Amino acid sequence: MTFSLELSDDVIEVRDWVHDFAEKVVRPAAAEWDEREETPWPIIQEAAKVGLYSVELFATQAAEPTGLGLLTVFEEMFWGDAGIALSILGTGLAAASLAATGTPEQLGEWLPQMFGTVEDPLLASFCASEPGAGSDVSAIITRARYDEASDEWIINGTKTWATNGGIANVHIVVASVHPELGSRGQATFIIPPDTPGFSQGQKFKKHGIRASHTAEVVLDDVRIPGRLIIGGKEKFDERIARAREGKSSAGQAAMKTFERTRPTVGAMALGVARAAYEYALDYAQEREQFGRKIGDFQAVAFKLADMRTRIDTARLLVWRAGWMARNDKPFVNAEGSMAKLAASETAVYVTDEAIQILGGNGYTRDYPVERMHRDAKIFTIFEGTSEIQRLVMARAITGLPLK
What we know:
This protein is α+β, with helices and mostly antiparallel strands. The protein has 13 helices and nine strands. Helix 1 (9-36) packs parallel to helix 4 (69-80).
């Protein structure tokens, strides 16, 4: 399929539907749930009722041929509010991990359990980071060992920074099976609900995205059936055999998930940036100082021009990466990382400038740009810091093993 910036009628229809939900349901609740720092279950329930939080929406938008469907959904939801949006859509990261390499049987059994039902919505969590392994996923020390006698995996370790960690129905956990192989010896596992030995550790109090639950999870001699290694044990054993022979492989567990979701994270950041820009623009057209609208001063107008330029530039990169991922075009120049880097740093820049335009008002919680500014920062950190994105890009561009 040829890359086009013209959205199909179907994508536009879904985008506008999501925007309406974000405007009427999410935004009015944003300040309350940010202050409460709790999972907004009533809003998740509303999203499930209208079909926005469902396996069907994720599946249809992920399969949308241009690759832009899911990106527009995420941008509109995060335009509403980042914390609430991540609570509603955070399950998508775990779902993406399962979809990347899961067997048809695993998809059929576990995707519905990630989302639950309209009456009883559930969540899922992707658990990769550890206290000593954030950006360096090769340093993961959570260990999975196969017990042949019982056909079970035994997993021990601690995961941190897990969105929905501990409150999710299904957890997807990255663990090392063959530590001597580094990241190539890792696998991803499905942890069913109420599994003995699996528990929530510390819940984090965060700078931003406060309505989204983030916590540690602890695995203490967790035993799961052998069939719950994502992709199946036979394929994993084949991959390990190739690694031992020094042959190329399709990549390790955590990075495969991040590669699929980086354009989506870029779309999240775009939503926050656009929301702050639009608020600052409206404010500049109404607020008067020295007898003139402040938007009539070049100092403010030029800020708005730069904000809009960066947002549109970032969106073009995000859409290109989304189209490439959906149409199996290789990221030769790390286009996924490029999109995530540009969009995340745009969100930080734009929300900072929005506060500057509002002046003292922008620094108070009476105006939403203060919350947007706090929310924006996480995008330069999670799913690969800006520094890691630059490293990935530099390696791709130069062909050299930069450190």
